[in-house]
Fold this sequence. Notes:
single chain; alpha+beta; nine-stranded mixed β-sheet; three-stranded antiparallel β-sheet; disordered C terminus
Amino acid sequence: MRIKQILIGLEIHIELKTKSKMFCGCSAESFGKEPNTLTCPVCLGLPGALPVPNKKAIEWAILLGLALNCQIPEESKFDRKNYFYPDLPKGYQISQYDKPFAICGWLKIKDKNENIKKIGIRRVHLEEDTAKSIHTMVNGEKVTLLDFDKSGIPLIEIVTEPDFNSVDEVLEFCKKIRQIVRYLEISDADLEKGQMRLEPTVNLLLEEEGREFFTPLVEIKNINSFRFLKRALEYEIERQFQEFSRSRVQKTSGNKTTRGFDENKMTTFEQRHKEEAEEYRYFPEPDIPPFRISEKLMSNVKCQMSNVELPEAKEKRFLEKYDLNDSQVEILTEEKELANYFEECVGCGKDEGANPQEIANVIVNKRIDFKDLSPTEFVRKIGESKSKFTLTESEIASLVDGTIKENPQVVDAIKKGKTQAIGFLTGQVQEKAKGAADPRKVQSILREKLDLSEKTKGAADFNKT
Length: 465
């Protein structure tokens, strides 16, 4: 028996950083606050309290939908999702069922062979968060305490198609989602603070002697780090394979289960039978009428969208405009703040004699601690560091020869026209030189040895100021 295919889908919950909660005026900034101090009759579910939807949260849900290439239906509504847990004060959660704010989207990732792959996004919808359960000891007894400060905070839920076929694909997708919501500035998506929670659904397609079998579906709940996500998926894939080898129980419509993840043992454990949609007894929220997405609201959201350069667009622009290599661009654009800082430094560098490639090299290789430096101060530091370049031209040439010999594939790519890769070789030489080689001389010697002086005319040049 062998694993023919791994099948994984994702639900990602993201807390929005609106000022107030989803259906009331209480502050949504609950992290680190005194328990049960940010509450009101609405988020405590008291009789007679009526919910009022947060307009900003709705706009941000649509904004994220557009960023994920979704269709935005004209009509939407909220629904009641009924289940009885202590952390749900009303006995139901206000969520969305059949008419979410965004549907049928996609996001590109790279598979293990570096090929572009589209992951389907089934829906993006809004709901309210639950209270926080705190398991602790009181007077020597195990108890569960409830903090309702988190109850009612706006949550976006992203539901994908089961398009992931490896753990690495899942990790890349989750990191891209976090990057996008941070670029949109709708959430900090801090996993350690519970602002982004990951719930993969996993099963396997197995093959034995020409016959195929699907293992039962398992949803792993509330994972709060990428490291734990990786370990949980790896463990669950192996567990399902071994379990099926013993039990031969196949996937049916009624045997989906949920499992938790034990962070100490790095294993998953069974929690409960997974409810189907009909068991939640969804019905339209009677206190919030259905509504139509107005042209004015869509115009406002599209205006917000036009003012945001998403990560993929920024990466492409950095590659073309600043002639950087892929690894430099990946690091510089990972966080919006760092990308902005880099471009501010480039603007200052024009007056200080530092070009974009030089600035990128220093930032990426962390040759100067820029944490508390303004862009102007940082660029001046680069100028000061140039006096520390002690290697002679012949010493640099020797390092260049070694680097060229060690990287034949990169050299071949450069000669075929991928001139951005010169930056990669420059970085490798700089690493060998431990910062003692003038990067302008390094690149000049590289181009001379690779006979690229004419082919790359107008491309990156460390001698250009």
